[in-house]
Amino acid sequence: MVHLYNLHPFGSQQVVPCKLEPERFCGGGRDALFVAAGCKVEAFAVSGHELCRPRGAFSTLGRVLRMAYSEAGDYLVTIEEKNKATFLRAYVNWRSKRTENSRVCIRMVGHQVEAPSGAAFGDQMSIVEMPLSEAPLCISCCPVKGDLLVGCSNKLVLFSLKYQVISEELSILDFERSLIIHIDNITPVEISFCVGYVAVMSDLEVLILKLESRPKNGKAVNHHPRKTSDPRRPAQGTRDETSQLESDDFVICQKPMELLGEKSEQSGVSITLESTGLADEKVEYSHVHHLLYRRFTPDISFCVLSDDIKLHSLQLLPIYQTGSPTSSGKNLSQERELLSLFCFFSLPHMGYLYMVVKSVELMSVYQYPETSQQAVLTPQFLHVITSNNLQCFTVRCSAAVAREEDPYMDTTLKACPPVSMDVCALRIQLFIGLKAICHFKNHIILLTQADPEVIPERRDSSRRLLSRKDTSVKIRMPSVAEAGWNLYIVNTISPVQLYKEMVEYSDIYKTVKTQSCIHLLSEAHLLLRAALMDAQQLEPGERAELMEAFKESCGHLGDCYSRLDTQHSHLALPYYKMSDLSLTEVLARVDWAVDHESQKYERGLIFYINHSLYENLDEELSEELAARVAQLFHAAEPKQLPHVLCSPSMKHTDPSLALSYLRSLDTCGLSSILVTLTKAAMALKLGDLDMHRKEMQSHSEMKLVCGFILEPRLLIQQKKGQLVPTEFAVHLKEAQPGLLVASVLGLQKNSKIGIEEADSFFKMLCGHGEDKIPQLLLDFWEAQLVACLPDVVLQELFFKLTLQYIWRLSQRQPPDTPPLRSAEDLINTCSHYGLIYPWVHILISSDFLLDKNYMEDLSKLQSLMCGPSFDIASIVPFLDSLSEDTVAGLSVHVLCRTLLKEYEQCIDTLLERCPEAVIPYANHQLKEESRIASVVENAVASTLSENQVWWREVSALPVSTERNTVGCCCGAGAEGFPERSPRGRHCSVFLALSSLLQQKEVTDLKVSFEQCHSSIETNCKHSSQGILCSVCVTEAFETFLYHAVVTSLIYIHIHSVVQNENCQDVRILQRSAMFLKVDAECCSKEQRPLRALEDMTVFSIPGTLQGNSKCVRCHS
């Protein structure tokens, strides 16, 4: 279906001042027109709206039958006839031909030009002769590369454009015959060529091929011609039978056929490629790929004479990449990137437009009201001439290219009218006696002749035409007596001017025919799109004007889809977006009714407003517009009203009005958690805390979290690309921080907010800068670990938490708000927080000055480090800020070294700072008991290394079987001997070992200590004065501590063996247990021995032999 409008795409017109009736004419780039008449070609300058003026002329060898111009290379090629012979000639450097008598150089194609004679080529026109073995019938120039394709009766010859270098300063244009395409069963009447795409047309057949450098289901090239037989071709016998049936009384018509893609190889047309270049040169085209074959059977009822039933106006139209960069010079066209390609051909009453690049498909079909004679396709229009009319149709090329070029087309961001939309005729202009048409830039060239007699260019018998047996082309011979002709240049008006006329024309359809209004505005939109695609032809001012009109056209289409009831009303959104109109400007274009109750709102407008309010627009509606929007959704989409009221754009909504609408939703049965939260937010705006508290208490905390997930904008809004907490979030920070953290965690879990966005939100909410971490953010990080979110990188979260814990411990910085979770809560609920090692508790139990917050941070850090997933290496560089002088710092450093498996260094540190924790440390960290004893022995040996003499003497003393115990009255503590014993290195060793002994064993050691102490008081000569001898005390205690250490080690060995359930080892240890008896000498002047110590029998081991020994474990 073709829509007919009465617009005015044609502007001014002028007559070309040529002297003879034109036989052929064509455009010459952007500023020239070639007219062939007789044996001469005239060039006319055409520039804008100025008058056409002669530019130059040159003679031809004969009468011009065909003529074509190539912008790439700036040459004119002709097929000329003289003495019934045809010649193919290319006119190069024609702009240097100022007068008809100027010198001209004639050379053969491929002829090597010497430097002396070639120097003159830069200043004069050259004619390149291209001999062919068969008469040329048609020609076509590639608009991108400038290559020339020549059609003969059964083959196509390709001449590649190249530049022959004469010297460093001069190169001349030349051609090279590079390829011959042999075609069987079709004789070309018209051909078209563009960057490897070849279109061939006979009287009723069209074939489109693609030449490729690599195979793609095609036939390979041969350096010698050969005929290929296609098994899908009709058998020769069938053709013979057909020829027998043909007679003067019958017309044999083959049925119509359309084959697309690979199926087109079944057409029966055989294609063979023959390379004519040198064998060692790279072959540009080596394979052929079939794209389209279409055969027509004429409907004779359309026309009086069957001679008129022929295809005409074959054309390939390239569309280049939008805004592709260009440079001046001879290689200008080669830099343009082909984006899409279209093929047009026409029957007398119907035209066909195909897209042939990525996929071959029929885009549009044009039905003419009259019999057409010729047509030209442009990116914006299809111009068709009949005998008395110039018709202008719209095309869909720009719509197809927009989808090829922009992947976001037909989304919520961008839209374009569909390719399948019906075409329309913008104008049918009366022109008497139209004979021919061509087009270049924004000019249409028309040849008219007052004589109504039609002289057909190709005249064959209908029988031979339809059977394809005689396909020779005969060029008509014009009569000398013909007169009354004119050659016109018709200028098309600017796209912006025609667009404005189309918009005015569409106003009559606004309230009458919805689809007609949209259709005409869509045509205007595509017109501007097509103009913008050819950016090379536009001046900066023209492009700016086109862009402004383009945005305006998008606004008009948005208005149509928003106000009119159509099935594509959702397109209002992308068109309004493309128009750059703000939400306020769009709402100002809406015709709001005075009576809100009776106003009907269309789906397109509702969809646009709803989607726009969902976006983070930095635009706030006025109170009046916000009230209108709230009323609109209350009436048309009540379920969306809570979401709409939460939009930042609705900030100025009257909360009382919003509450009244929300309460009415409750009566309609639409009450939900989201409605409750929205009412709570409105109550906060009103300052009614009682109402707010009532609404918040009407649902459980879990449901409230779900409500915030449904509408995140209740808590978080975005302004100018930055997240901003809402008034609701600020209130929850003070009143319900746990709910706030849980809600943001839910938003992150449901991908409503990112990790970094959540961190920024809490920092802004608490008023902290980027460098400071509020406690609420720390609570959120801990909640992330507890929730085990899949998109959270654990090590990064560990790093942030530990860094903050360390900073607060080193600075003794208390949290700004009470923590939501204690260390015990985290250990019980999160697998990443591990149980703190027992020896850590012993280590920190000696410091009773730590406050509660300090201990919480320390416990959380220790628990995290004791967890199974923690990477200790990541925080080692940051531990320097935590001093080892404090118990907290010491515990963290020892814990860090332990995780790095530096056990010996940790034991040394503990022996120095907290010997009570050594054995628990070794027992926990070193799982093999034999290794525990070995480590402790090494530590003790290292401690006692300063006095090896005493160690040897203690080891050499005999074993006693007697055991004497005395009551202890020294007042020694249970943890060792802190009150009276010398606080030296050896005592620390004993304190470390005593933690592994049983209570009875510790009591035995205390009794021995008391006995030693009593003996010192009795025997020291200084005791009578009430003063104990320091030497005696020192020696006695040294002796006591050494054998105490040894005894403790024996105990440890026994315990270890018992745990390993080796009874034989237990007996051996029991028999070898030492009962140490130590003599100490007094340091008095008389040097007499301390006799009382001779009777001091110290340390007996439980279970030692008293006759027969038994195993302390199994009693065997």
Automatic annotation (TrEMBL):
Biased composition (Basic and acidic residues): 227-242
InterPro entries, alphabetized: HPS3, HPS3_C, HPS3_N
Residues annotated as domain BLOC-2 complex member HPS3 N-terminal: 3-478
Domain BLOC-2 complex member HPS3 C-terminal: 497-931
Region called Disordered, residue ranges: 217-245
A Pfam short name: HPS3_C
GO cellular component: BLOC-2 complex; cytoplasm
PANTHER family: BLOC-2 COMPLEX MEMBER HPS3, HERMANSKY-PUDLAK SYNDROME 3 PROTEIN
Name of the protein this chain belongs to: BLOC-2 complex member HPS3 isoform X1
